[in-house]
């Protein structure tokens, strides 16, 4: 058995052990210590068991230990509830575990007094592990028989899904560990290492085993993978009953539109979004879907094109705006029109703590397992927003307004179409994107790209209040400020990655951050919570 086959065997064995797929036909048919794929259908099971991210039972809220399980607590849509008399040990424990993320610290794995450090590499390791499985799968599948019509169809479809997933994973890594993409600097700005081979590269004579590719190189690979995925899934479409949790031509198109939007390639972003909008795979949810007593984002929602992975927001332990717990910012809540059905569906006010806003029915709160992710979900509303933004920045005001109004008509009772131009039009679309896609893993990345937008740059200061919890509840608070264009918009590389080589990869500059002093806090206008 050659080295490639050995590495393939090891990877599939680990995927089997770690993902619990041993009950399948393929994995029960062969030895657990010597797995050899014999058909393309075997690799289909590897795709399901070792590449797609599974939903998991939720017993805690946002966390550094799950892949991107922290993405929705970085931005200006989240703060912490007002201090009260209620004991807050439960929420204090949660807050302590992700202090370094929430307070934009240099060491994101640190707790508030630096008494311990949690590994900061979970997202990095998980996504690269999945990418490695994809690389091996793409190499191995070419050697398997695919002569029959069914085999050929599966062969093409598996290729498409693998390319889509590799693109989505690299896109996440690029936006966590690389600066926001700008055409002027993408050729020199460092991003993440590009691993595309099915074997382990290691040269004992080299002090550095991997090097960071540039933003241009990483985004070029993402685009190439998505174009390959689109071609494959057009030739061999995904079965209708698999569309929600497996890649389809439409989900590829929507992600491609998003990537072009981040690259400021507005014409291409518009084209891809428009194709998705004209598809029959999904439709915008009607205004009747937004009620105060029913979850909005469920498996039955007609506009969801794709979702994979966990949801850190469905547990009742967090985002209930209790003292010390997370809450939705009043700034976001107040952006909604009185007749906007999303406001009372997504959020609610907790009377015990005044202005604190709770997360209500955007997701299925209290669900042990949510099948709709708060990070890796693609839905039709984004296509409308992508197209509107791309049209607006190209100066196509009429098309941008039509698209924006079409979305708002299904969100706001008695809505009267509006007409905007120029910067006001772009601002309205960005605000609509914030209201529609809040807590879906968009806002932090959107703020990054707005800051470097060549046509309409925008950056803002963000304040986060952190409640330090002792044995009897909240003991005191710390206030942190993220400056405009702050270096903390890009994560430092995980410490284990830096320590791996004798001569480490170049890290991202990221400063230490202290809480604001009392007199500074008095001068700072803290956002309402």
TrEMBL record:
<dbReference type="Pfam" id="PF07980">
    <property type="entry name" value="SusD_RagB"/>
</dbReference>
<feature type="compositionally biased region" description="Acidic residues">
    <location>
        <begin position="520"/>
        <end position="529"/>
    </location>
</feature>
<keyword id="KW-0472">Membrane</keyword>
<feature type="signal peptide">
    <location>
        <begin position="1"/>
        <end position="24"/>
    </location>
</feature>
<keyword id="KW-0732">Signal</keyword>
<dbReference type="InterPro" id="IPR012944">
    <property type="entry name" value="SusD_RagB_dom"/>
</dbReference>
<feature type="domain" description="RagB/SusD">
    <location>
        <begin position="361"/>
        <end position="498"/>
    </location>
</feature>
<comment type="similarity">
    <text>Belongs to the SusD family.</text>
</comment>
<feature type="compositionally biased region" description="Basic and acidic residues">
    <location>
        <begin position="507"/>
        <end position="519"/>
    </location>
</feature>
<keyword id="KW-0998">Cell outer membrane</keyword>
<dbReference type="InterPro" id="IPR033985">
    <property type="entry name" value="SusD-like_N"/>
</dbReference>
<dbReference type="InterPro" id="IPR011990">
    <property type="entry name" value="TPR-like_helical_dom_sf"/>
</dbReference>
<feature type="domain" description="SusD-like N-terminal">
    <location>
        <begin position="119"/>
        <end position="261"/>
    </location>
</feature>
<dbReference type="GO" id="GO:0009279">
    <property type="term" value="C:cell outer membrane"/>
</dbReference>
<feature type="region of interest" description="Disordered">
    <location>
        <begin position="500"/>
        <end position="529"/>
    </location>
</feature>
<dbReference type="Pfam" id="PF14322">
    <property type="entry name" value="SusD-like_3"/>
</dbReference>
<protein>
    <submittedName>
        <fullName>RagB/SusD family nutrient uptake outer membrane protein</fullName>
    </submittedName>
</protein>
């Amino acid at each position: 058995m050659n080295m490639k086959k050995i590495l393939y065997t090891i990877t599939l064995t680990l995927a089997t052990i770690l993902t619990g797929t041993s009950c399948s036909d393929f994995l029960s048919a062969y030895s657990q210590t010597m797995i050899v794929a014999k058909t393309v259908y075997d690799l289909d099971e590897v795709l399901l068991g070792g590449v797609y991210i599974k939903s998991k039972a939720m017993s805690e809220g946002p966390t550094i230990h799950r892949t991107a399980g922290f993405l929705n607590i970085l931005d200006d849509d989240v703060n912490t509830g007002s201090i009260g008399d209620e004991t807050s040990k439960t929420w204090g424990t949660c807050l302590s575990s992700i202090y370094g993320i929430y307070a934009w610290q240099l060491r994101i794995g640190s707790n508030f007094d630096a008494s311990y450090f949690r590994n900061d590499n979970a997202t990095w390791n998980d996504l690269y592990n999945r990418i490695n499985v994809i690389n091996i799968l793409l190499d191995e599948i070419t050697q398997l028989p695919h002569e029959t019509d069914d085999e050929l169809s599966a062969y093409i479809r598996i290729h498409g899904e693998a390319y889509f997933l590799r693109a989505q994973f690299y896109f996440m890594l690029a936006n966590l560990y690389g600066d926001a993409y700008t055409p002027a600097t993408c050729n020199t700005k460092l991003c993440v290492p590009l691993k595309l081979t099915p074997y382990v590269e290691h040269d004992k004579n080299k002090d550095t085993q991997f090097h960071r590719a540039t933003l241009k190189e990483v985004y070029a690979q993402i685009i190439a993978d998505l174009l390959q995925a689109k071609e494959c899934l057009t030739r061999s479409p995904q079965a209708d009953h698999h569309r929600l949790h497996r890649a389809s031509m439409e989900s590829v198109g929507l992600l491609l539109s998003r990537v072009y939007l981040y690259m400021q390639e507005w014409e291409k972003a518009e084209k891809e979004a428009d194709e998705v909008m004209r598809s029959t795979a999904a439709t915008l949810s009607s205004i009747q879907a937004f009620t105060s007593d029913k979850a909005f984002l469920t498996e039955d929602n007609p506009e969801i094109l794709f979702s994979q992975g966990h949801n850190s927001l469905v547990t009742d332990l967090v985002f209930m705006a209790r003292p010390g717990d997370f809450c939705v910012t009043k700034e976001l809540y107040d952006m909604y029109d009185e007749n906007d059905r999303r406001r009372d569906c997504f959020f609610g006010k907790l009377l015990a703590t005044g202005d604190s806003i709770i997360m209500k029915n955007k997701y299925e709160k209290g669900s042990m397992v949510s099948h709709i992710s708060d990070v890796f979900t693609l839905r039709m509303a984004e296509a409308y927003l992508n197209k509107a933004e791309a049209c607006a920045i190209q100066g196509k005001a009429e098309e941008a307004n039509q698209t924006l109004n079409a979305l708002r008509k299904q969100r706001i009772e008695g809505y009267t179409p509006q007409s905007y131009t120029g910067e006001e039009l772009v601002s309205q679309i960005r605000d609509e994107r914030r209201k529609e896609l809040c807590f879906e893993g968009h806002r932090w990345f959107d703020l990054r790209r707005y800051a470097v937008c060549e046509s309409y740059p925008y950056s803002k200061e963000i304040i986060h209040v952190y409640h330090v919890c002792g044995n009897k509840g909240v003991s005191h608070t710390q206030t942190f400020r993220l400056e405009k264009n702050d270096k903390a918009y890009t994560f430092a590389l995980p410490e284990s990655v830096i320590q791996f080589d004798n001569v480490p990869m170049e890290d991202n500059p990221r400063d230490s951050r202290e809480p604001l002093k009392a007199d500074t806090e008095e001068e700072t206008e803290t956002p309402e919570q």
